[in-house]
Amino acid sequence: MSTDTLDFPGLVAAIRQANDALAEQASRAVNVSLTLRNWFIGYYIAEFELQGANRANYGDRLLVELARALRGQAVSNCGRRQLYAYLAFYRAYPQIVRTASALSAPILARPRLEEKVRTLSAQSPVVPAADPETLIGRLSYSHFEQLVELADPLQRTFYETEALRGNWSVRELKRQIASQYFERCGLSTDKTTLARLAQAGAEPASRRDLIRDPYVFEFLGLQPREVMSEGQLEDALLDRLQDFLLELGHGFCFEARQKRLLIGGEHFFVDLVFYHRILKCHVLIELKNDAFKHEHLGQLNSYVGYYQKHEMAEGDQPPVGILLCTRKNEELVEYALAGMSNQLFVSRYQVQLPGKDEIAAFLHKAVAELGGEDECRTA
Predict the structure, then answer these.
(1) Checking DSSP bridges between strand 330-337 and strand 320-327, what pairing results, if any?
(2) Which of 107, 128, 155, 333 is the most exposed, fewest CB within 10 Å of its CB?
(3) Picking from 47-56, 61-70, 202-211, 308-317, which range would have the lowest pLDDT averaged per residue?
(4) 100 vs 37: CA distance, rounded Å
């Protein structure tokens, strides 16, 4: 943009353009670095496994021992399951070696990498694929996680191509795979129309999607709360709700905000987690700043079930979940129970936990107050 005749609107536009362009560049740079990191981890594991003598000392325990050692070194996202995924990523995308070699000046494996580049360059790919630099520049590691699960190279390349063409979000890629888009395309006689329809209704990726990726903020050492807030109103409500429950004096002990759970390879976040010292149980709270949907309660039940299976210690009672849905002048409170009957809940738990009417009244007041504050700020 020329600065020769820069008026005030032009000044605003120029700053906005520079901000957006460089923020986009920064987001993609972080994602490229994360993707390469995970690829290198898989590469190093594969190289180690080729050295039979060293591998024999660990056998099937290699990834378990490696995960334990890396945890001691504070290396994030390197559990046994994730290490296995990185190894699978490397094996599914060996061609990334070309980009990895070009960007690996600080990486100690460069001579070996360059040898692999020459080896791969002499091989003709069985399935035409996108340029590796394009792949890692435009797809996040979370995209690759979905693609690696596809065993058929042709199917994987099909979804790569479509994801790049449509700039698909990770959620859209998962949806298209689940809807068997590849199989439907193979059976369709009018593939062009099918592709146009698929792309027309697709959800595009955005910079916000990239930076909200759980792998990214752990890689950068950020806390979930710093990037997972869905809006100022919801965040402010959580602040007040947290204080409200602690001030009740019924035994609530704050434990976590935006607690990350890894369930079936996917990341989920519980808004608030308390431990109730009188009831001897975890209390999980989910706040939805919209009207009630059945999937909200199903989601909370999943969290409660996870805590019952993985987080209960000896002497703990089953966890309890509280779902809060709110719109102005409309509140809903529901409890999610893990392995408890309603009768048991009423007789034991509701004596100590705040009742539905009490929480609903708090929500109504908090939403009204925060709504008034927002109006004052915008006035």
Answers:
(1) antiparallel
(2) 128
(3) 202-211
(4) 9
